[in-house]
Amino acid sequence: MNISFIGAGSMAEAMISGIIEKKIVAGNEITVLNRSNGHRITQLQEKYGIKKLTSLSELEKHTDVIILAVKPKDILTALQSIQSYIQQGQLLVSVAAGISLSFIESQLHNDVPIVRAMPNTSAMIGKSATAIAFNQSVSDAHQKMALKLFSAIGLTKVVEENQLDAVTGLSGSGPAYIYYIAEALEQAANEIGLEEQIAKQLVIQTLIGAAEMLKHSGEAPENLRKAVTSPGGTTEAGIKVLEQHSVKEAFIDCVKAATKQSAVLAQTFEQVSSK
Ligand SMILES: NC(=O)C1=CN([C@@H]2O[C@H](COP(=O)(O)OP(=O)(O)OC[C@H]3O[C@@H](n4cnc5c(N)ncnc54)[C@H](O)[C@@H]3O)[C@@H](O)[C@H]2O)C=CC1
Ligand SMILES: O=C(O)[C@@H]1CCC=N1
Predict the structure, then answer these.
(1) Which of 69, 99, 114, 235 has the smallest number of CB atoms closer than 10 Å to its CB?
(2) pLDDT (tens digit per residue) in 178-223
(3) How far, in Å, from the CA of 18 to the mean position of ligand 1?
(4) CA–CA separation, 260 vs 162, rounded Å?
């Protein structure tokens, strides 16, 4: 299988790294095109043994999967540049946040199989939580191929496209919410007099331990929380303060706001692009 990336930023590198590490394809079966920075390709060549896509016409003969990994603002130009080179049987994948399947279809000839994906930045270490949606032209074989590709960077779930705004609000942006908690815990550690380096390690391990417990124990988060909370003990005193500050409600509102913004951005983008 040959894969071509249009755009070689952080998301492309995360995917390249995962795909090679999981031996889905070798480095020399990946070609990459990047607009702004020639040095970036050299860097990726040295690190992963990928090849440079020297001309877009190479897409016609040497590619099974084209992955669009450019920012949403650059997607229209990228689609316009590749549309005449896409061949029957090739699969087009987009990781651009908020860019709909119908918008991508509207820029291409008929019946191109398209996968729209929402990964997250933990893809860098093979731990993304990714959701993917397909257009009508995607065959079973393409679906398997897409699942294989995204499974190389973490957990992958197939959803209907109308769920992708919610996925973006939950797991696309999700790593930032957890980093926000880590920031707060580090600041708290400082204020209660813990040594900075020790506190950092305790925070990280506490997050990893809790995440692993959620994954492996099979218990609901509420039960795990209750198991930490002795009556009249320290956790009860801490959780009481979180409840006084309505922290749970704040997180619920946070995910809802991010989900709403994903839909707003998509609409705004499509209105601007159709002018
Ligand atoms: N960073 C995140 O948390 C997430 C990002 N995404 C999506 O992934 C996509 C890529 O994001 P990043 O890798 O962070 O962006 P990035 O800015 O690091 O990389 C994009 C690269 O594409 C290049 N480029 C732009 N237009 C091009 C064109 N027409 N032809 C060739 N190269 C072109 C740019 O020069 C740049 O190097 C975005 O659409 C974003 O919405 C999706 C999920 C999470
Ligand atoms: O904040 C954003 O718009 C992007 C989409 C998902 C994560 N980051």
Answers:
(1) 235
(2) 999 999 999 999 999 999 999 999 999 999 999 999 999 999 999 9
(3) 17
(4) 12
